[in-house]
Design brief:
This protein is of the alpha+beta class. The protein folds into 2 domains: 55 residues, no CATH class; 171 residues, Sandwich (Jelly Rolls). 31% of the residues lie in helices and 27% in strands. Strands 1, 2, 3, 4, 5, 7, 10 and 12 form an 8-stranded antiparallel sheet that branches. It has a 4-stranded antiparallel sheet with strand order 6-11-8-9, with no helix packed on it. Helix 1 runs antiparallel to helix 7 and helix 3 runs antiparallel to helix 6. It is globular and about 55 Å long. The mean pLDDT is 94.
Length: 249
Amino acid sequence: MTPEIDDAFEAVEKQYGAGSIDRVRQMLDPARQERHPLQKNAKWILPGLSKKPWHDPYEHPEIAPVVRAFEAGHARIKEELTTAWSRSRPSFTDYEHYLSTQSDWQALYLFRAGAPVPESAQVVPTAYRILDEYALRTGIHCPLLESHFSTLLPGAVVKPHCDLWNFSINLHLAVDIPEGCGIKVADEARAWVEGRCLLFDYSFEHEAWNKGDGTRSCLLVDLWHPETTLAERAALTALITEIRLLLGE
């Protein structure tokens, strides 16, 4: 660890109490990590979080309000995204996953690089407003990651992979779902239901596909795992931010 990380951890413990970030410290010791076999390619596993690939979107009191707000706004969100796809295509870019970039996987970002993308408020205002009101202002959005519309073109495949860690969790609002689309997390495949949300732990191996004739679009939102504490969130934000600075990101 660097002096900057040590100082940040000390400040968190001063605010929240001794022992408040013990799980974060344990996460940094690979010898003390316990993980599910299907999490083996994730870089960091915060101990003590439920080893559960799929979550009920309504089961967590912290997350349920944003789920309901996005679902209630689905019709307007779909209308605005359809208009953006036809009239504002330059707003979409090839999705840059940490493992690869895919031209058949297009993204329209609402939050990226630690900040909202204000241009998106003009293009997809309903989704932008709900994200701001229910996720950013409430602090449940993980600022280390993103929120974006994810559009898979016909024939696109997202190969099986694990994302970086388990201390955030991925929310999908199914915006526009043609036949032939699906997602598999760990050993269970599911289909998106248009207008409804899915919630899963993407430290588990997962994959997705569009075998249909139309584009498949979901709104993806990276939220803090509901079993993390405020102290842990502060420490993890400081830790990952410092690591990215050291890597020149």
